[in-house]
């Protein structure tokens, strides 16, 4: 009878040929779990859901029947969601540093870029779930609201624009989280800097022409104003996104890949 | 199994790890001993890729840590037991790791049992854990992927004597099966109890390494003659340098046999002749821990 080497006997070199790499899907699932297994994360998600629901209810009572259209429901939900979704992105990144779990996370998966992309995917899944909830509630509101034209002025492409807007907010939050690796700093800068930039550029006359190109808030405005974007507006959205989303993300990713994980 | 070759890491002017080379062998517990701030943690962080060295290489079983797929299935790591999300329960911390590694939930329960965290304790949030409980949780985390190599930074910190005894048994068992363990400590006694081999580090440099027996070997000779006054002359004539050690005894760096030969030649009667007490390692370690002694150690370049 042949005996096999007991699994507990190891050689002086590690034989890693039989070990598959950790899949991205696994990491995405883990990151989604990390968002709901602490009180702060769970309550943020609950808050997003509850606030979306509350806005729907309040608007249903406050608005006239004719105003209770799908489009206006979507409109009122855009702001609170756009406010909270970036925080979700920020926290998913910064908790690894503020709670120092990064030391475990990045030894379990030393390819840090992969972990960050998993976080991006996880945050987007939650962001899209929030959008889906908004669309569902807006549809219900439109259906039961009693407006003569509940679906007027809004097409499927507008739902797409709404989704794009919220997805950008989530990724921007992730990017600011990556740059600062600190919840408080990332949240404050995320909310203050773009506002400050808008204020400064709007009072400086010389900036008026370039503002839509540089300020994300201005260039995003057409996305929730309905109607089709002109080629120039899309280009402005692209430059605004480049400056406020892509650039911070690239810098933040560069920082995380190089930084010591403490 | 774990090999560091000429690893150096600087922070500005400060050299945290200075040309460090050593190997933690397979089937052994290697104790990484040094005072706080000596470079132990930085060296261990370099091994697992959390810190990039300025020069030199660190490999585990012939691989860079980055090159090991799903590394926790091969290398169990505990670097800082407090680096856990305070708001997660002990069980949840382990479940996250289990999910990342791709091991079953059953394994989480096995590990909790192995490290002695009860069901009630596992349900509590980590913020309510004592340091000892965090260490146990960290050890459970490190062992979860059934690794063959363990890298543990100050694992005995916060454990009570019973806990240290338990860990020693656990690591003995682990190395008996062919595993490799590198554990750090700033307490000589702790390492003496657990380790087979030792690497002593001070100010970022390796100052001594070898087996416990080699390093703890008593050096020098203790001799108590019947007549101390004449024996001082006997020793001087034989060319043996000795210092009085109280109670009419002497202590010398020479071998016991040389002292005995000198005594026989002079016809002196000895009441006692034996290896001197007090290990060189302990003295070396005390020197390392005394701040003002650090410079002398490096300047002299003490080697094992």
Report what the structure shows.
The complex is a heterodimer of chains A (262) and B (304). Chain A contains ten helices and no strands. Chain A has helices at 24-36, 39-62, 70-98, 102-108, 112-145, 156-180, 183-203, 211-214, 216-220, 231-258. Chain B is an alpha/beta fold and 304 residues long. Chain B has twelve helices and 13 strands. Chain B has helices spanning 40-47, 90-101, 105-114, 119-123, 131-143, 161-176, 188-194, 212-216, 228-237, 256-266, 280-289, 294-300; strands at residues 2-11, 14-24, 29-33, 55-60, 75-78, 149-152, 180-185, 197-202, 205-211, 221-225, 242-244, 250-252, 270-275. In chain B, the strands form three sheets. Chain B has a six-stranded mixed β-sheet with strand order 5-6-7-3-8-9, sandwiched between helices. In chain B, a hairpin with a 2-residue loop joins strand 1 (2-11) and strand 2. In chain B, helix 2 packs across helix 3. The longest helix of chain B has 16 residues, at 161-176. Chain B is elongated. The A-B interface holds A 6, 8-14, 16, 19-22, 26-27, 29-30, 33-34, 37-40, 95, 99-111, 258, 260-261 and B 1, 26, 45, 48-52, 60-63, 65-75, 77, 79-80, 82-88, 92, 96-97, 99-102, 141, 148-149, 177-180.
